[in-house]
């Protein structure tokens, strides 16, 4: 089978499409004929060798996919061969950019028959991340104001739609003018270009000087410490990444300025297979089926053009998901 392999950490030239044996199928796993995969910033980090969790090289990249069930491992029930599914590929979020992948059953998202598999590949990581940010890592309530950095990206757009569905007011930042169009279309109240506006000032303006209830930060660098200045007293910042660089600041001092709190978040800590995870999968599937959760596709690439996909994602031009056509079903 064809698969995208990173032979050793480094530049895009380290990416290779190789012909590999099909994967084993352990008990409790489902073998998927992969139609589409989605390329995420974590794939870039794994290629570069800077991903927070260890990666054993060579490795097959790809952490989320869509396709159809090809075979059931021992002990699997409630799913049938031929079913349309989306999935996070497992705890290490690898092996998805291949013609077949074995996935733990707990990581599956069943799809309504007829749902476009191309669109479905965009949902697993970002939609479940957004759901658990709002309902597990934080406990939002109708009327709360949230500030989402990089609101034009996949997680940002999912947060916008799920936040609006929960009755929240959603504002967000983008790197430059024009990248927030989708967020506004999906119900964001205000999108702030960081290159021309002060997001702290805008946050205070839209909350009449009170500050926002929650900030979701995926950028780090100097944006993270300033995010605390946009909070109300007892507000919360949740960090989910450092796409703009590692921050360097005295976090304890910032917390005491408004008695705020700070947390990190990783979606798989929401325990796939647990009752709260099953509730999130059910909720996401319902939103997708109802058409009130939509994620735009920024660009798609064939599996043989994986280096071009990485280049596009690293260019920061994407507003929406970057897809990899594997089987193309």
Which terms would index this structure?
329 residues, alpha/beta, Rossmann fold, 2 domains, 7-stranded mixed β-sheet, 10 helices
Description:
The chain has 329 residues and is of the alpha/beta class. The protein has two domains: 2-123 and 295-325, Alpha-Beta Complex (Quinone Oxidoreductase, Chain A, domain 1), CATH 3.90.180.10; 126-268, Rossmann fold (3-Layer(aba) Sandwich), CATH 3.40.50. Helices cover 27% and strands 27% of the residues. The protein has ten helices and 16 strands. It has helices at 41-48, 117-120, 124-137, 154-165, 181-185, 199-206, 223-227, 251-258, 275-290, 306-314, and strands spanning 2-6, 15-19, 29-39, 59-60, 64-72, 84-88, 100-104, 108-110, 145-149, 169-174, 190-193, 212-217, 231-239, 261-264, 297-302, 321-325. Helix 3 packs across helix 4 (154-165) and helix 3 crosses helix 9. The longest helix has 16 residues, at 275-290. The mean pLDDT is 92.
